[in-house]
Design a protein that fits this description.
Blueprint lengths: L1 E5 L4 H4 L6 E2 L2 E7 L5 H16 L2 H13 L7 E4 L5 E5 L4 H11 L2 H10 E5 L1 H6 L2 H8 L15 H12 L4 E5 L1 H6 L7 H18 L2 E7 L5 H10 L2 E7 L8 E8 L3 H6 L2 E9 L3 E9 L2
Helix pairs in contact: 2-5, 10-11
């Protein structure tokens, strides 16, 4: 029996999690505002695309990974996503690309721009809100809310996952916006049931799904239910005890991965963001 793993794309993280995440995982990226979750996503995208562009180097990494298996362990092999899809509920493709153009090196930006398939749902997201009428009443054409679809936002997201998630990486930007999008036909309970079904069916797709969620916005019990539902929770936080601005990453939960972390006594990762390499692990805090 051989199981698949997909690299996170953050090299300094992968070396501490046995080279990647279990394929088929739905991963919650739980972030204090500005603590690095989006930069993690961008870096994951770019580095996975770079690995796809250099098959010989990836094959070398995979051979090394397979040799690390210990007696009695089930073998795992590394696989790369066929494609990468970015679902944006409210932001435009241009806005996301401009953010990366300001923040990162030209090669980083170009790889992201040319390698990601964007799916924009702002027309549907804003269609049944007051925002549509506000912008139209002011005769501003900055946003286009016209859509031929009569589906609600959850149905549209489901269709995208069903069509594109198999063997791919899919990012949902963001679960925060989806959870705050309540109407006559959509409640928080509906979204949670959607997540439960997504986690179940994702095991057949054999890819990775990232869900972005900001902390301290939802009620604590709702956030805990979501964390309990998904396969993995990566918590991006600001270190409140540090005398300098310090971002940390803690793998709060991950089915099939936590024993590796506990074996190495890893408590959390100190992280940094650079214009050349994006999101990186700069130091590892271990339990002594």
């Amino acid at each position: 029996m051989t199981l698949n793993k997909i690299p996170s794309g953050v090299k300094t993280l992968d070396t501490n999690i046995n080279d990647g995440f279990p394929a088929g995982s739905v991963i919650l990226l739980l972030e204090d505002v500005g603590a690095g979750a989006r930069e993690f996503v961008y870096t994951s995208i770019v580095n996975n695309l770079d690995l796809k562009a250099d098959p010989s180097y990836f094959e070398m990494i995979n051979r090394k990974h397979e040799k690390q298996s210990h007696e009695g362990e089930i073998n795992t092999t590394l696989v790369l996503p066929d494609e990468i899809y970015y679902i944006s509920l409210s932001r435009s493709k241009e806005d996301i690309l401009n953010e990366n153009a300001y923040a990162f090196h030209e090669d980083f930006f170009n790889t992201l721009k040319e390698g990601v398939n964007f799916k924009e749902l702002s027309d549907i997201y804003f269609r049944q809100s007051i925002i549509k009428n506000l912008w139209l009443s002011n005769k501003k054409k900055n946003l286009d809310f016209d859509s031929n679809s009569n589906k609600n936002i959850l149905e549209e997201i489901s269709d995208i996952f069903e069509e594109f998630a198999a063997n791919n990486i899919v990012i949902l930007d963001s679960l925060t916006e989806l959870m705050l999008y309540e109407g006559d036909y959509l409640s928080k309970n509906d979204v949670i049931m959607f997540l439960k079904s997504l986690v179940r069916i994702s095991k057949e797709w054999n890819g990775l799904i990232y869900l972005l969620l900001n902390t301290k916005i939802l009620e604590t019990n709702i956030q805990e239910i979501i964390s309990d539902t998904v396969d993995g929770v990566l918590t991006f936080e600001w270190d409140k005890k540090s005398v300098k601005l310090q971002r940390n990453l803690c793998i709060t939960k991950f089915r099939g991965l936590l024993p590796q972390l506990e074996q190495n006594n890893i408590e959390k990762f100190e992280t940094k963001i650079t214009s050349n390499d994006g999101f990186e692990v700069s130091n590892i805090r271990k339990i002594i």
